Inverse folding.
């Protein structure tokens, strides 16, 4: 099976192909179990908060009745400009009505993932201005799959994933911290368009570094700043001579960013919670055209603010408002498609009622107050890129 690199979206001249895709009785099943024991040990003026835990995760996927057939021959691709819009089942250009595939379903794909974890965390305090947290997680991960197109395979991994967090308190108002942690993510699955469709990529070890500071500016009003970097293996479908090739795990996706935050009471009536983040998310080390490309669905800048104001002389009534901003972001790995930036405004009212010893909070909230049309997210599934619209204006009322 060979796909042209432009076979899974509308061509520039309007040509497209129609497929009948069904995955009946598809199963996704996750099961998990966790047990933890914690306690405290005092030794030589130091306090150790100890956490010991173990967890088990099992994930199953099955596609036992799968159909994917062309509705017409690729040599006779239809054109959006001549399409008969009256009936989606009527083929254009005078072709016969397509009623669906009569192909026999295949047992297309099965997958099993098992992960066993044993972890230990020691939070140490007792120094005058210094606290630290040390952790280690031992992981045994295994997965196996059987794909109709490319056969069976397996991945296995044994890892020790450390974490460390150190905090130094300069004064009652200022404390700085530094942290490092490693994590584990499942590898991606090769999409339909790849020559190794169905193959699972190896497990991905992630690394995260963070340096930050927290400052108490006034009574219960706190500012924070953090610089961070997250590194993980990059996955994509290669292109060879105009055709899609294999889905590979090659190179690194690196997120480097700065996050600022403000939270607390500006006055006895006004409180605010605000954050802003600048991110540089790029790929490197792929050795091909994806080097230096920005990661999908990651804006260069985003910010949000939530404000609550208690009405004077009506302390049980609050007016609430929110603002959300996201910059433009790429919707395809090759950065050929970008969705624009957007702003979203929210507003609401909260009323607290106390009667007969019972406290009731009634809230009325309007999300997307101006009914803004925007692309909330972009994603990739089975090799195709998708644009996910933001919700229209929504009215919410709750009582608690």
């Amino acid at each position: 099976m060979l796909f042209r690199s432009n076979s899974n979206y509308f061509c520039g001249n309007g040509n497209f192909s129609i497929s009948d895709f069904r995955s009946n009785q598809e199963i996704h099943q996750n099961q998990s179990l966790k047990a933890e024991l914690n306690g405290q040990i005092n030794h030589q003026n130091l306090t150790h908060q100890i956490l010991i835990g173990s967890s088990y995760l099992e994930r199953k996927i099955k596609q036992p009745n799968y159909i994917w057939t062309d509705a017409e021959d690729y040599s006779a691709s239809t054109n959006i400009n001549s399409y008969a819009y009256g009936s989606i089942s009527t083929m254009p250009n005078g072709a016969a009505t397509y009623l669906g595939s009569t192909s026999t379903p295949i047992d297309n794909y099965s997958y099993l993932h098992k992960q066993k974890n044993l972890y230990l965390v020691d939070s140490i305090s007792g120094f005058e201005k210094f606290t630290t947290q040390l952790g280690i997680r031992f992981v045994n991960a295994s997965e196996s799959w059987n794909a109709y197109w490319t056969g069976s395979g397996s991945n296995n991994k044994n890892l020790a994933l450390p974490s460390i967090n150190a905090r130094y308190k300069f004064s009652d108002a200022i404390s700085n911290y530094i942290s490092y942690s490693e994590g584990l993510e499942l590898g991606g699955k090769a999409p339909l368009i790849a020559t190794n469709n169905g193959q699972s990529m190896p497990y991905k070890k992630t690394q995260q570094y963070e340096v930050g500071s927290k400052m108490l500016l006034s009574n219960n009003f706190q500012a924070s700043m953090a610089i961070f970097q997250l590194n993980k293996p990059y996955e994509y479908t290669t292109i060879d001579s105009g055709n899609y090739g294999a889905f590979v795990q090659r190179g690194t996706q690196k997120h480097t960013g700065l996050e600022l935050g403000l939270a607390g009471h500006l006055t006895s009536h006004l409180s605010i919670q605000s954050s802003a983040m600048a991110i540089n998310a790029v790929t490197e080390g792929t050795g091909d055209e994806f080097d230096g490309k920005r990661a999908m669905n990651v804006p260069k800048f985003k910010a949000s603010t939530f404000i609550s104001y208690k009405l004077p002389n009506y302390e049980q009534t609050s007016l609430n408002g929110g603002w959300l901003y996201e910059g433009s972001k790429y919707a395809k790995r090759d950065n050929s498609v970008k969705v624009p930036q957007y702003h979203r405004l929210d507003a609401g009212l909260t009323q607290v009622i106390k009667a007969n010893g019972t406290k009731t909070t009634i809230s009325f909230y309007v999300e997307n107050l101006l009914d803004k049309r925007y692309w909330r997210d972009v994603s990739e599934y089975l090799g195709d890129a998708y644009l996910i619209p933001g919700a229209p204006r929504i009215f919410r009322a709750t009582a608690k």
The two ends are 56 Å apart (CA to CA).
